[in-house]
Amino acid sequence: MKITKEYLNKILDERFKNENFYKLNHLPKPYELRDLQKGAKRIIEAMKNNENISLIGDYDVDGVVSTAIVALFFEELNYPLDVIIPNRFTDGYGVSPKILERVNSSIVITVDNGISAVEAGVIAKAKNIDLIITDHHTPPEVLPEAYAIINPKLDSCSFPFKEICGALVAWYLIAGIKIELNLDIDLKKYFDILSMAIIADVMPLIELNRVLVKTGLKTINSSKRESIIAMKDYLNRYEFRSEDIAFQIAPRINSAGRLEDASLALNFLMAKTKEEAYHHFKVLDELNNQRKLLEQETTALAMLEVKESDKIIIVYGEGWHEGVIGIIASRLVDKFLRPAIVFSINDNKAKGSARSFGNINILELIESQKDLLLGYGGHKGAAGLGIMAENLEVFRDGINSNVNESELIGLKDESILGDLNLGEIDLEMIDILDKFEPYGQSNLKPKFISNLTISNTKIIGKNGEHLKLILFDEESDTYHNAVAFRCQESFEVNERVNVSYTLSKNDFNNRVTVQLIIDKFQ
């Protein structure tokens, strides 16, 4: 059956038939998060007593945005914070013992980390530091000692929506402080950068997350924040959708923590002038270009190591850059439609990054091999772990033996709706797709499949990494412009190909057209 506009509208509408639609004035209350009021009161007590407060974030988009939201709020309160974002290469992850050596505060607030920091909790208690953890990752069996642990995934937490990002937990913390101090501050102004974190951390774009991202994207498009204005000017774009954040903004913000230090990204988000913000975004753009080259090189090496018999793909290499192994895991998932774990080996220790696919809980699978691991953490869709290099093959065998074969049968790209009637592609179809924005996890942007003839190709991009095509559909006797990003394949004119793709609006020279964004050549 060919997919028509009418059918497309119907099946997308079905996705939200039973959804509990949130409005901003119906958001869950801050104190539905366990320990939030306790944590907020202790922070206010510290402020009244002029105590030193340290804020410890993380080096991905969610962690940097979480840090920015809290730091900007405290700037507005005119209260100083000691802000620390760990360096991936020298500090490791989160509120580690190494980080605590640098702390001279009576309170440590974590954002987007801390739920697994058992050792740090012991040290903090011994140093008379009140540890206030705000996190969203899956709690381990043993929780760290802390003054307050604010995490919607705790069994004892009544917050109605468990799958939220660290930045939203951080936002709720400042909302609690606002309530306690009876402040007249509009916290919706943080929705622009909060929406970036929700999208970048691949949260399900339904219910609570959906309304926040919809509002956040509108806020981005009208934002007066210097970083947002500079970002728009640099990219010469003034309207952003969820996919723009996912593929254009998030990688640039992430590149700082992947290659150098995430404080560069924090400086961008907190810039006080457009000139300062523009400079920082230019640095992030340059780092992202470096990241792309490094990713391409390492992905090529990783592909050579894939064992097609693996149910869960496990690959590793000596000296692979730690900052790109998570992206490479995602590339392997896209290629093989299976979960993947990629390790970088240095000094006989392997640091890994895992990405899942379908409904497979990658964290549970990793946990099944915890006796082999030096440490691990994350959630069902993505995780990080460490292991001695000599145990990697035992780990590979163990994790693959724990996969239920039935979970893997029929795993496919659930976003592919079917064969599209290309004769119906026009701006009206784009309007139908726009109606169900924002797209992302749990509301995947529809992909289609077609058998088409290649009429023309052209290599584009700074490093020749993309392919522009003109495709011909014999059935509807129509030609379509298409782009295949990160494509290394070459094709002959008049060659027939099966393609999966999404549709996108292209505005060039004041002429608006629809183009196909190629996902895969099948």
Any idea how many domains? 3
Which CATH-level-2 architecture of the largest domain? Alpha-Beta Complex
Shape: globular
The major sheet is characterized as:
5 strands, parallel
Q: State Rg.
A: 23 Å
Average pLDDT figure: 92
Q: In whole angstroms, how far apart are the ends?
A: 19 Å
Helix content: 25-40%
Class from secondary-structure proportions: alpha/beta
Total number of helical segments? 17
Describe this protein with a few key phrases.
5-stranded mixed sheet; 3 domains; Diaminopimelate Epimerase, Chain A, domain 1; 21% strand; single chain; alpha/beta; 5-stranded parallel sheet; 522 residues; OB fold (Dihydrolipoamide Acetyltransferase, E2P); inorganic pyrophosphatase (n-terminal core)
Task: Write structural notes for this entry.
By secondary structure, this protein is α/β, with parallel strands linked by helices. Helix content is about 40%, strand content about 20%. The protein is built from 17 helices and 16 strands. Strand 9 (about 375-380) and strand 10 form a beta hairpin. The two termini are about 20 Å apart. The mean pLDDT is about 90.
In short:
α1 (5-15) packs parallel to α17 (427-435), α2 (36-48) crosses α6 (166-181) and α3 packs across α11. The chain folds into three domains: 33-282, Alpha-Beta Complex (inorganic pyrophosphatase (n-terminal core)); 306-408, Diaminopimelate Epimerase, Chain A, domain 1; 416-521, Beta Barrel (OB fold (Dihydrolipoamide Acetyltransferase, E2P)), CATH 2.40.50. The protein is globular.
